[in-house]
Amino acid sequence: MDLSNPPERFWHCSVQIVGAQYPSVVNDLTFEELNRTVVQPWLAGCPFVISGTIIRSSEQVAEIRIAHTDNTQQHFADVHNSKMRASRISDMVTNRSLLPLSQGTDLTFELLFSGQEAKPQEPDYALVEQLCQRLPQVARILAVRSRKGKSAYEVSDEYDVQDLLHAVLRGYLKYSVQEDPLPKVAGAKSSRADISIEELGILIELKYVHGPEDQKRLFDEYSQDLVLYPRWRFLRHLIYLVYNSADLRDAEAFERLSGEQEIDGCRFSTKVVLA
Asked: Which range marks the domain in which residue 251 is found?
């Protein structure tokens, strides 16, 4: 199967946890749903959920299977039931949700273990990073409008930056761009602005610099908030956008925060963008 252009419908996944009596199964996913909720978290080493079961790391998994079929799970269940009735055999033990996995095309290795991601995402990630870097140029154009009667767009806090970046991202990306994902998933009470792109596993943390004294505050906030990021289960890339960074005493000190991170078993990259 050409996974650069995979079938959109009828994907199935089962996960057998070490020590569990029965596997957790999910049927009839679209490929986008499978990629977002299973494949990308697995490749990133992040927790994910299958039919209510939280898989926190691959070490918990005794067996994982992904299969594609041309029909729904209900189709395979109906065929199985018809055969049982025709043969007059009582069937009390067959798990109908596993039928598509046993009869479909097994693509577990290709999607999870071959090193080939289902959908190349690095070009899109590079675009998001570049848009973050170029955001001040966008703001300068909107701050001085030559046409008479047109109000300027002023950037004076993190929410102004958030709205501007959200608009720019939506103009370039076909993916869903969400605001403030962490309070919804981690119980966070922070008022700082965040943007997420689930399909790309990107979380953008926005920081607005009001003056040189913000240097310590931003370092402290980064350290405190870092433990929250892995609770967003899609996380693959964290972009730490420091806007108006020229007002910091030592903006380049923040660049040392860039690199690979592993927290609570979730591996992700961190990129500091000074804007």
From this structure: 122-274
